[in-house]
Amino acid sequence: MIVVEPPALKHDAAEATTVHEEHLLERLSLLENRLGRLTERLEKGLSLLLRQSENTYATHTLVKTLVDALAEAGSINTAELERNWHERCEKDEARRTAKD
Question: Which of 1, 3, 34, 70 has the maximum number of C-beta atoms within 10 A of its C-beta?
Answer without folding.
Answer: 70
